[in-house]
Design goal:
Blueprint (H helix, E strand, L loop, with lengths): L2 H18 L23 E5 L21 E2 H7 L4 E5 L12 E2 L2 E3 L3 E5 L7 E3 L19 E3 L4 E5 L2 E3 L2 E6 L3 E5 L4 E7 L2 E3 L2 E4 L3 E5 L3 E7 L2 E3 L2 E4 L3 E5 L3 E7 L2 E3 L2 E5 L3 E5 L3 E7 L2 E3 L2 E2 L13 E3 L5 E7 L2 E3 L2 E2 L5 E3 L13 E5 L2 E3 L2 E2 L8 E3 L4 E5 L2 E2 L3 E2 L5 E3 L4 E2 L18 E2 L2 H4 L1 E5 L7 E4 L13 E5 L8 E5 L21 E6 L2 E2 L4 E7 L6 E4 L2 E2 L2 E5 L2 E5 L9 E7 L2 E2 L7 E4 L7 E5 L3 E2 L6 E7 L6 E4 L2 E2 L2 E5 L2 E5 L8 E8 L2 E2 L7 E4 L1
Parallel strand pairs: 1-2, 1-3, 3-6, 4-7, 5-8, 6-9, 7-10, 8-12, 9-13, 10-14, 11-15, 12-16, 13-17, 14-18, 15-19, 16-20, 17-21, 18-22, 19-23, 20-24, 21-25, 22-26, 23-27, 24-28, 25-29, 26-30, 28-32, 29-33, 30-34, 31-35, 32-36, 33-37, 34-38, 36-39, 37-40, 38-41, 41-42, 48-56, 58-66
Antiparallel strand pairs: 43-44, 45-46, 47-49, 49-53, 50-51, 50-54, 52-53, 54-55, 54-56, 57-59, 59-63, 60-61, 60-64, 62-63, 64-65, 64-66
Amino acid sequence: MALQPFRRVGTYAAGLLLATGLVGAGSLVPQADAGAASTTGGTTLYAYPTGGFSSTPTSCPQISTAGSHCDLTQALSLATGAETVALAVAGDESNSATFYVGNFTVKTSITIQPASGIVNPVIDGNDAGADKTCPTSSCSGSVFTIGNGATVTIDNVTIQNGGNSGGYGGAINVGDGYGNTGTVTVNGSTFSSDSAFGGGAIASGIHGGNGTVRITGTVFNGDTASYGAAIDSADFQGIGSLSVNTTSFINNQAGRDGGAIYSGGNYGTGVVDLASSLFDNNYAGALGGAIDDGGGDIENGANSGSADIHVGTSTFTANSAEEGGAIADGVINAQSQWAGHGLVKILRSTFAGNTVVNQAVGADIASGENASIGIAGNLFADGCYISPQTLADSGYNASADNTCIAHDPQDAPGPGDIVNTSVGTLLGQLTNNGGPVETIMPEPGNPAIGLIPIGTTSIKLRSGPGALGYVLCPTGSSTACTAGAVQPTPPNVPSVSGLSPSSGPSGTVVQVAGTNFTGATSVDFGSTPTLFGVSSTTLIYALVPTCTVGSPIDVTVTGPTGISATNSGDLFTCTQPPPVPTVTSLSQSSGPAAGGNVIEVFGSNFTGATAVHFGSTPTFYSVASSTAMYVIVPQGSAGATVDVTVTGPAGTSTPSAGDKFTYA
């Protein structure tokens, strides 16, 4: 029934056999023809600053040509999913024409990054740039509005002057509105002079929406808002998941609450993970962490919200607010009867030089009776205002006074805690001490130095996806460890740099790349341990355990000296398993026992097929589509009838009446 396809594919298959040299049975996959740029997934679309090009381009090539030169709006409109939008011109402060100016809507999943050889492209919201020309009638609003369900990655760009004075997210707004979801990953970027009512730079999970934001190696400088000068996550009944790593928040100002981050406000629920980051010289005019007198860095759990914040190896310095100069959690002000229910856990972090305005309490931390504070291995140079029932002290904290640890007769200090005024005076300046962000080094004689004994137990700030894992002082350290954010690099702690594949269903075998895997004792997908095998010090094979389809989870490796820190390279997304192939009919149901002829196999779910068998004999094949493939009949026994089966990632087709082949 398929004489014409048989002739066409016979010639094609013969060429493939010659090209492969007949090396074993396997998949013969034709290569796609090279052609012009298209908008299919995986394409790179090159965008240029506005002006001087076709108004209706059909593609975005790397080198601009007459009639095909795209601006950023056009490139985004051409994207259909999985494309990279490459910014082809770097920003130049003296030449506003090199800025990508305006407000942009991202409706699909894409990556936005510089083109090869381009450094620091600037995307300008034009809210404060009177010297720049807005390409539309009005440039007020978020620079990037992320469409429902989109997953967007932004790498190595500057987003500045975004202005959404009456709304949320001056630079990026994701997951805003009931039922709306979205995921944004930001790497190596800068947010400067962005402003909004909530989330001067980024707003996530607002008004009943659900947003996920992951930030690594980024700077927020000079952003402003009423709530969350840099980031507002999980506000107004929203749900937000925020992960921040090796990032600096500097000189941001909130008119009311959250000089850098505001989370879990107005009945919102959120999770925030902060690792190895810097909060310097941020300011909040009123409330800190709840509905009270402000938090210079983080406002957590406002208006009966329920945020869950975890801080590890971070530095807080020169931040200011009316109460809770660095962190305020679950505080109520005189005008409100609502209390937040925030949970804050702080591990191996430094608080120094933070202040409160008009009050003498809570320079570092302020918490109310509905809050929950957990601390271990921190350096507190200033003071705290913590409700007696809210503190869980796991020990080895160094504090300048007793307000941060044993602040109340009901609260026994944790093991190894010390109170000593020199903790707050013998400190160096904020500077680069060899880590990813600036830190404050304790000076010789500071009792925080060597406070934590070698081999102190591993601590995870929480269980579940995105959990931050640390060891207070690893077994392999040469000396006892110091309380606070400045730590010697633990020897041989595992690190995860990449996964292959980075998505798939339960049962997928994943190659985990990284370092220091020798002696690994556990591999976890989120909070679920799994079977694994160590191939080398840089490679592990791990089996994806039962997982929930949805947002990415961190894959962590535990070794004798610690747990790998989470990062954007360790994320795995669980997907639905593919359906099992079926074979319904064959173009020829019989042929010579010598084999060698090509037949067509019809059915379903052939995409990704890994094997084809005639009985128990494997053979060469080429997948034409999800419902058709071409196979070479292997040698068989005259008179024998066998089932032709197709194997895919989810299993092998069940024998049926339509898959029978008889050898003549």
